[in-house]
Amino acid sequence: MTLQNIFKSANPIIGVVHLLPLPTSPRWGGSLKSVIDRAEQEAAALAAGGVDGIIVENFFDAPFAKDRVDPVVVSAMSLIVQRIMTLVPLPIGINVLRNDANSAMAIATCVGAQFIRVNVLTGVMATDQGLIEGQAHQLLRYRRELGSDVKILADVLVKHARPLGSPNLTTAVQETIERGLADGIILSGWATGSPPNFEDLELAINAAKGVPVFIGSGASWENIPHLSQAANGVIVASSLKRGGQVENRVDPIRVSRFVEAMRRSVANRDSIAPAKSSVAMRSES
Asked: What does pTM read for this prediction?
């Protein structure tokens, strides 16, 4: 997975559009137009703030189905994503919560989106929906059947879940890539709004051996200068909302502030790296 080819950035910032409750969800409000209008506004705000890509999630459909969502959710998300793609000229991804990877792949393939997020690609996780088993074998075969090139970003030890047993993070990353065939890895904290720790990001980067590693939760303009030193990209949502509250709308000013903080941090990191290499070469000579 070449980040530059997809996002036009080697260190992409992916903003999240949290969809209002969709039909059949417990909090469905009865108006799909309201859901579409909000999604379009948030996508436009993210683009105006300077993100490199957008991922669309049925976030407010909680409590989520464990695997297969209702067909109307697939239909609604397909329509909404297509509307966003005509409005915003950015790479688009899809996450069908809680873990309906096949539906995400189908939507992305049909509308021409570039990537999906899969919360549990391999292994078994204990969640509020019960035990979720990774179905990498089904998803990868389905992608091949569709003739699709949609990329798969997979969470490792995903938030709001606990693994059965005590897997080693390095092993989990390696197996997600080598046995699950993930195109990118996502590392989150324990819950929405909680960041991964820096040491875990470093372990994941080393284990991934060149496969992109994304921060999957808890990134803010305050902590991204530090966290971005050990990650290739970031998926960010809550801290871009008004007041940093997940239920609020996206705030373009907060988006711009976050983008500026990360861009400055990456530029500083990249300028320091050649200097270190130069010092090492002089020392060797």
From this structure: 0.91
